[in-house]
């Protein structure tokens, strides 16, 4: 093998292995950072397919809420991001880079796939739209229609605020962030959904207790409800970034799980019917018990009558023998 071929082979290896950083799946892909808004999407092993599904799903419903996104390609013709999302993810990313270069790097798309910093979790950065409103709209439609629209996406969690993942930073940020929902005169029943990935310096119990104390200070009328809360404070920590949002219908939409929300709800027992069935059963037991008592009394009476007949016969025989 020539020296030129060896050098070419080394360059080829460097393209695929750079310092052992396996997390860099796509060249030029940025990571989740403080100050961003978007959507955290969890999946089961297949992140590449999850990203493609996410683009399709988000664009479908974003078009309904905010209208289709239009941009100019290199030939000057108009196309939509949804068409791009249907292509292979690498082709889509290459096309996006080309479009950014042609526009001087000033154009940003409304959905951008970034590295989240955790396995089986992707982060879709959003631009000029409300991620909580979009995710709620998606789950509401899936819950109503029961139509399955994804295979590998598990949960879709809106991220409407981010801060550094240290307890003092989180509480300082949440003091202002939670005001629209919980500060007097506003109040609500709530629960806190906390999860930390690739972060060991935050203890779940301490964080939840601190946030609950903060919500109580904003308005004493705010009450914890772990069964059916009006609002759920979602806190997702990934490495050094804390992602937060306040979600509605978190329990109804199965913790924002797109696989579970399309399943048919288990029928709830009718209290009136249940009570009626219980009363009927009790009446039946009473009737059965009454009939048993009657049978026992009848049998007792027959035995007594037989005994009386036997006694009379014995008395009569005794009298006859005496004569």
Walk me through what this model shows.
With 323 residues, the protein is an alpha+beta fold. 46% of the residues lie in helices and 19% in strands. A hairpin with a 5-residue loop joins strand 2 and strand 3. The protein starts with a helix and ends with a helix.
Major sheet details: 5 strands, mixed
Measured by DSSP, the beta-strand proportion falls in 15-25%
Contiguous low-pLDDT stretches (5 residues minimum) are: 13-28, 72-78
Structural class: alpha+beta
Cα radius of gyration in angstroms: 35 Å
The whole-number mean of residue pLDDT values reads 80
Instruction: Find the count of extended strands (DSSP E, 2+ residues).
Output: 11
Shape: extended
**Helix count from the secondary structure assignment:** 9
Strand ordering within the main sheet: 7-11-10-8-9
Q: Could you spell the SSE succession in H and E letters?
A: HEHEEHHEEHEEHHEHEEEH
Gap from first CA to last CA: 144 Å
What fraction, in percent, of the residue positions are helical? 40-55%
């Amino acid at each position: 093998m020539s020296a030129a071929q060896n050098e070419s082979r080394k360059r080829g290896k460097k393209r695929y292995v750079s310092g052992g950083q396996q997390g860099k799946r796509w060249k030029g892909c940025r990571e989740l950072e403080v100050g961003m808004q978007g959507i955290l999407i969890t999946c089961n092993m297949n992140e590449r397919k999850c990203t493609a599904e996410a683009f399709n799903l988000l664009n479908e419903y974003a078009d309904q809420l905010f209208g289709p996104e239009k941009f100019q390609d290199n030939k000057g013709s108009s196309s939509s991001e949804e068409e791009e999302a249907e292509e292979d993810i690498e082709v889509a990313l290459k096309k996006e880079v080309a479009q950014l270069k042609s526009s001087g790097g000033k154009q940003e798309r409304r959905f951008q796939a970034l590295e989240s910093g955790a396995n089986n979790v992707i982060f879709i950065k959003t631009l000029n739209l409300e991620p909580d409103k979009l995710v709620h709209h998606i789950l509401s439609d899936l819950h109503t229609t029961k139509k399955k629209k994804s295979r590998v996406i598990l949960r879709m969690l809106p991220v409407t605020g981010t801060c550094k993942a240290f307890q003092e930073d989180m509480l300082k940020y949440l003091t202002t962030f939670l005001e629209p929902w919980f500060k007097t005169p506003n109040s609500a029943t709530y629960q806190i959904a906390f999860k930390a990935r690739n972060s060991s310096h935050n203890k779940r119990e301490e964080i939840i207790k601190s946030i609950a104390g903060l919500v109580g200070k904003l308005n004493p009328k705010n009450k914890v409800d772990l069964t059916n809360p009006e609002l759920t404070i979602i806190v997702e920590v990934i490495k050094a970034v804390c992602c937060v949002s306040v979600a509605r219908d978190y329990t109804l939409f199965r913790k924002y799980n797109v696989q579970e929300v399309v399943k048919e709800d288990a029928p709830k027992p009718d209290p009136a019917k249940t009570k009626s069935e219980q009363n009927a059963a009790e009446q039946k037991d009473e009737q059965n018990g009454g009939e048993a008592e009657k049978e026992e009394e009848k049998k007792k009476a027959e035995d007594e009558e037989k005994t009386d007949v036997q006694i009379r016969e014995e008395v009569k025989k005794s009298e006859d023998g005496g004569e």
